[in-house]
Amino acid sequence: MRFPPFFLKKTHWESERSSKIACQIIKILKEKVLAQLRLVAILEGISYLALLFIAMPMKYLFADLRLMQPVGMLHGLLFVLYVLLLLVASLQNKWGIGLIFKGFVLSLLPFGTFYAEKKLFR
């Protein structure tokens, strides 16, 4: 068995320092995912409200389809991103199935993502 040269061996100080740095990086990544989830929750809620209270009334009351496709597509994209970020954040933060379920169900209700952002994702 060959041993690495002396300059490749890590001292106790170096390994302790690198583990502290790794912990800090993991903490920053977790905070970033939560911040991204909170931002996407707000944007998804706004797009859902715009779809329900602006685009759909224009479609059904005035037969105007100009807003349906862009608002619907934006809402669909934000919804998928919200669900993906919810799953990533739940894996990183070791959330239970109940919290994941609440976050998903709240995404289906008008104003639900605002509540989720305020109460669940802090």
Walkthrough of the structure:
- This protein has one domain (34-120).
- The protein is 80% helix and 0% strand.
- It has four helices and no strands.
- Helix 1 packs antiparallel against helix 2, helix 2 runs antiparallel to helix 3 and helix 3 packs antiparallel against helix 4 (112-120).
- The longest helix is centred in the N-terminal third of the chain and has 51 residues, at 12-62.
- The N and C termini lie far apart (51 Å).
Q: By helix and strand content, what is the structural category?
A: mainly alpha
Main pleated-sheet profile = none
Distance between the termini: 51 Å
How many domains? 1
SSE pattern? HHHH
Instruction: State Rg.
Output: 22 Å
Helix content: over 70%
Give the beta-strand count. Answer: 0
**Share in β-strands:** under 5%
* Regions with little confidence, pLDDT below 50 for 5+ residues: none
Please state the average pLDDT score: 85
* Number of discrete helical segments: 4
Please tell me what the overall shape is: elongated
Question: Strands, helices and their partners?
Answer:
Elements: H1 12-62, H2 68-93, H3 97-108, H4 112-120
Keywords:
mainly alpha; 4 helices
What would you say about this model in short?
By secondary structure, this protein is mainly α.
